[in-house]
Specification:
By secondary structure, the chain is mainly α. The protein has 24 helices and six strands. Strand 1 and strand 2 form a beta hairpin. It is globular, with a radius of gyration of 28 Å.
């Protein structure tokens, strides 16, 4: 690779982030990052947002990343562990110079690798040497996937050098003087491979106009062909399911109807769990509708630095998911629950969509950069989502009145809830949160919770949210600014001059907590109902729609299903406690992938055979414990 091409490659890394080989709804946990490596990756991620959130870039270097096992930020860590000068880094952030920032952080991490390698070579005992090599390799991890994507041959050469370096460091001096000399020669040789590459690619002092971050959209390999660098989330991200997992209440299930007998709904269920309906980067990361809306409710742990201001929130019209839809405003919203969706229109936090169908299309195409969904896909998604029901609550009647199971405090709160107040135009809380209408009025209101974007702005109206199930959906308001239902009561009392006493505020809170409660809010797992059993039942139900799709020779929708379900089935096998049964699940996933392979070549007979074998094997597996 020429030096010019190498430099173009490095500049491009700041534009194009990293990939995974397939789209899975089951994300994989990653190993912890060293502070400076984490800050580097966060800087790459945040620097690609438009506009760049410079305060968050600085925070990436001053604070530990979310979930870090280290108690100090990267700058403090470097002050303790390193003599590398960070002046270029802080200067670039202060000047808000993206190009200078990129080269400063790249050089810093490369110099840190060199610093640890120097320690490894100079160490007088194997333990110290190996520890330094381990740190150096952990720092190199910040570059590794970039190098692998741009030049796999170089990545393999460097990988071997790291193995040789680690082995030699671990045994240096253990077998005497002669062995020590040989080990040092091997360490020096392996180190030279790594250091030469770093010097030629990551320790670059001169810049050219071509090497700005806006100028280079992709890297160029030695062949001269474009190389797409895959997308990864930065350290501190969390797209795993909420724990405990919300309980899913589906209207048809409560009536004893099997989902496999409802192919349109089952296909919509699959789409709700499929990253394939979105565009990059959501698809590459395995983000699906169910990632944010676990089991129709809220994923309160969802967090992406730069896109979320707190867990359970995301800026769906920012720069990350779809640059075309970027409104250039830092306005993340609290993820809304989809329970009882057919009753809660209009849709969107500000009620801008009158139909679930239009709202769903906007999510796919605009928010997450997906291709235009087919009418069948929208039909299926709507059919599935309109089966979402509210959680049963024995303390409420169907028309929103308290039962005899409610507390005395809640009963007093019910009276307060229905009392008119001059501060809200002689209306009551119940005027908007109508008990008989699932505690909403299907309108939008400006209650003063949204700061005006400009003088005279009329854009403060927000959709009235239901109060059902709200005990489990904290925090509250569109931006998640209020942590508890008690704080919501306090906010209304203070901003609307309701004049409630301490006792009345307590009773009103008790009422809201009663209305928002549920008999069983979370999925209960045990030896008989494991997370894998739940996933297996769902995935095989999704696959059952092939009984309808294969006779129709519906290539597009068959492939969307097989690509989604086969990959997820194999990924979910990793959650099995019965390790000996994993090969069966992998083989079953292969059966379904074979259906897709046959359909791609128009070999419908082979597709039918693979599908029959899948069904037979799935029944056999389901009948046994796994």
């Amino acid at each position: 690779m020429t030096q010019r091409v190498q430099r173009v490659m490095l500049s491009a890394i700041f534009i194009v982030l990293v990939t995974v080989s397939s789209s899975l709804a089951t994300p994989a946990k990653e190993a912890p990052w060293l502070p400076e490596a984490a800050a580097y990756r966060l800087t790459l991620f945040l620097g690609n947002l438009a506009p760049v959130p410079w305060d968050k870039v600085m925070q990436a270097w001053t604070d530990p990343y979310r979930g870090s096992e280290y108690s100090v930020g990267a700058l403090d860590w470097l002050g303790r562990e390193s003599s590398v000068d960070v002046g270029d880094l802080t200067n670039a952030i202060g000047r808000q110079d993206r190009n200078a920032l990129y080269f400063a952080v790249t050089r810093l991490v490369a110099l840190r690798i060199e610093e640890e390698l120097d320690t490894a070579i100079a160490a007088d005992n194997p333990a110290t040497s190996q520890q330094a090599v381990s740190k150096a390799k952990d720092l190199y991890r910040a570059f590794a996937d970039h190098i692998k994507a741009a030049d796999p041959d170089v990545a393999r050469t460097l990988g071997l050098a790291w193995l040789e370096l680690n082995d030699a460091a671990g045994s240096a001096g253990v077998l005497g003087v002669g062995a020590k000399t040989k080990d040092m020669e091997e360490m020096t040789s392996a180190r030279a491979v790594i250091s030469t590459y770093l010097a030629e690619n990551y320790l670059i002092a001169d810049l050219s106009p071509r090497q700005t971050m806006n100028a280079v959209p992709e890297t160029i390999a030695r062949t001269g062909q474009p190389v797409g660098l895959p997308v990864v989330l930065p350290p501190g991200s969390d797209i795993f399911d909420q724990d405990p997992l919300p309980l899913l209440i589906l209207n048809f299930e409560e009536q004893g109807i099997d989902e496999s007998d409802l192919p349109l709904i089952a296909y919509g269920d699959m789409l709700f769990d499929s990253a394939e309906i979105f565009g990059s980067p959501a698809r590459d990361l395995g983000i699906a509708c169910s990632t944010c809306h676990n089991r129709s409710d809220i994923n309160q742990r969802f967090f992406i630095p730069g896109a979320s201001h707190q867990p359970g929130a995301v800026d769906v019209d920012g720069a990350f998911f779809n640059p075309m839809f970027n409104d250039r405003r830092d306005d993340p919203i609290d993820i809304p629950s989809l329970r009882g969706l057919r009753f809660t229109g209009p849709y969107g936090r500000d009620g801008r969509f009158g139909s679930i169908r239009n709202f769903t299309r906007n999510v796919i195409v605009n928010e997450f950069a997906g291709e235009e969904p087919t009418p069948f896909m929208l039909d299926a998604l709507v059919a599935y989502m309109t089966e979402f029901d509210f959680l049963p609550n024995a303390m409420l009647t169907g028309d929103g009145l308290l039962t005899d199971k409610a507390s005395d405090a809640a009963r007093r709160g019910e009276e307060i809830f229905n009392r008119p107040y001059t501060g809200i135009g002689n209306q009551s809380c119940a005027s908007c949160h109508t008990p008989s209408g699932n505690f909403l009025d299907r309108k939008s209101h400006d209650i003063g919770s949204v700061e005006a974007a400009y003088e005279g702005s009329q854009a403060g109206a927000m959709d009235t949210p239901t109060l059902l199930g709200t005990v489990y959906t904290a925090p509250y308001f569109h931006d998640g600014s209020l942590p508890t239902l008690a704080s919501v009561v306090e906010w209304f009392n203070d901003t609307k001059d309701l004049g409630l006493t301490d006792a009345e505020r307590s009773d009103l809170t008790a009422y809201l907590e009663t209305v928002g409660a549920a008999d069983e809010p979370f999925e209960t797992f045990d030896a008989a109902n494991t997370p894998f059993r739940l996933a297996f039942a769902e995935l095989t139900t999704f696959a059952s729609t092939l009984d309808t799709l294969l006779p129709k020779r519906d290539t597009q929708h068959i492939l969307l299903l097989t690509d989604t379900v086969a990959a997820d089935l194999a990924a979910d096998a990793g959650t099995m406690e019965n390790l000996s049964a994993r090969p069966e699940i992998y083989a079953l996933a292969k059966r379904l992938a074979d259906v897709g392979t046959a359909v791609r070549t128009d070999d419908w007979d082979a597709a039918d055979v693979s599908w029959r074998l899948f069904k037979k094997d799935a029944v056999a597996i389901e009948e046994r414990a796994f």
